Amino acid sequence: MKPKIIHIIFILAAAILPAQMPAQDLLPALNALTIAPDARSASLGDAGVATSADANSQHWNAAKYIFSQHNGGIALSYTPWLKTATSDIYITYLSGFYKYGDNESVSASLRFFSLGKIDFYTGNYEFLQTARPNEFAFDVSYARRLGKNISGAITFRYINSTKITIHNTVPATEHTSNFAADIAFFYQKHVDFSFAPKSEWAFGATISNLGTKVNVSDSMDYFLPMHIKFGTRITFNFDDVHFLSPTVEFYKSIVPTDSKYGNSSVLTAAVHGITSDLSKIIWILGAEYSYKNQIYIRAGYHNESKQISSNSYLTFGAGIKYKNMDFSASYLFVTDSHNTLLDNTYRLSVAIAFGKGKSNWYDYDL
Fold first, then answer.
1. Residue 348's CB: how many other CB atoms inside 10 A?
2. Model pTM?
3. In a 3-state reduction of DSSP, which class is residue 142?
4. With a cut of 50, which residues of the chain have pLDDT below it?
5. Exposed e or buried b per residue across 184-212, where buried means at least 16 C-beta atoms within 10 angstroms of its C-beta
6. Radius of gyration, CA atoms only, the chain
7. Is the Cβ–Cβ distance between 249 and 49 less than 8 Å?
8. What is the pLDDT of residue 115?
9. DSSP 56
10. C-alpha 156, offset from chain centre
């Protein structure tokens, strides 16, 4: 009895795993953890480690919450993933935070990734069963001010994923659990320019998904998608009405590609991964224009080396605030014809903020 998968799950792998790595290179598992979940950052080319605080900072840099202009907030985002290949793979993301005074915050998020429906058939095309594999991750974070202009955060993550196995020629689904942690830092201060007084400069850095290995097959355990990311942003406050916020970020996987590290500990592999393959750094450019902190226009470019994949793309988006609510949307356009699975991806986000924000300041906190 030979099972046949009508809904091919490897379509997913083609889009979120490195596409041109040699066969002997190590590949991380559960790469869906790195997919931008919210519309605002997605419209900035997937930049978020140094952007101003919002309710979705949990995914990008939880240390930013200390500099939020609001006491708390909650956000919900939706992404139909790989919609050019299928219609039933999607990501939903729920996140929120609460500040204790000016020096501490707690936050949490829940990410659900549906891999769609998979029908199994025998070699004679007789129906066996239907499976609906999925992944979900639950995060909790604690952030604290470390100085006047700097904060730090630590995040703990529980990950549950579906593994499809074949037992005596009959398909079966199993659930595996993993644990991971992130470390984040954020620096922000006011700066003055002659053409833009009361502006702002920020720097952020994170190390993400340091955790247990994933049992994908009986023969090998895989690393989580460990990565390091850092970036900077300047927000120009021209006249308390018009704001322009360009940002640049750099992203690097710290999973070593050399297969000899396949059985190494997570920390040993991460240390080696930080210093190896420096040519495979991803860079991101983004810019956000704000009018009266009510209307937002965004654009970005996400560039990946040909040694990693063909996932380079342009992004666009917009947002609007009404009282304490925010609505955002983004659109992705692939610039490399070798990988069109991500083309025409859109994301939608809605958020609600709690507590009064400061006026006449760039305070995108939704």
1. 15
2. 0.86
3. strand
4. 1-23, 358-366
5. bbbbbeeeeeeebebbbebbbbbbbbbbe
6. 21
7. yes
8. 83
9. T
10. 15
What does the pLDDT look like over 293-332, one tens digit per residue? 899 999 999 998 776 666 789 999 999 998 889 999 999 9
Q: Edge-to-edge, what's the strand order for the sheet holding 127-131?
A: 4-5, 118-121, 127-131
Q: What integer pLDDT is reported at residue 23 of this predicted model?
A: 43
User: What are the angstrom distances between the C-alpha of 257 and each of 10, 223, 274, 277, 291?
Assistant: 21, 11, 11, 8, 45
Domains and CATH numbers, the chain: 4-354 (2.40.160.40)
In angstroms, the Cα distances linking 121 to 134, 165, 174 are 20, 14, 19
pLDDT of residue 8: 42
pLDDT confidence of residue 168: 61
Show the tokens assigned to 83: 């919609």
Task: State the Cα–Cα distance between residues 133 and 116, nearest whole angstrom.
Answer: 7
Per-residue pLDDT of 351-363, as tens digits, reads 999 886 544 344 4
Dihedral through CA 18, CA 284, CA 114, CA 214, nearest 10? Answer: 50
For the chain, the farthest-separated pair of C-alpha atoms sits apart, in whole angstroms, at 75
- Give Cα separations from 192 to 19, 198, 340, 363 (angstroms): 44, 5, 43, 17
List, for residues 324-348, the tens digit of each pLDDT value.
899 999 999 888 766 667 888 999 9
| Residue 196 Cα distances to 200, 203, 239, 248, 329, angstroms | 10, 19, 7, 20, 28
Quick one: tokens of 184?
A: 């984040």
Q: Residue 254 is encoded by which pair of tokens?
A: 């710290």
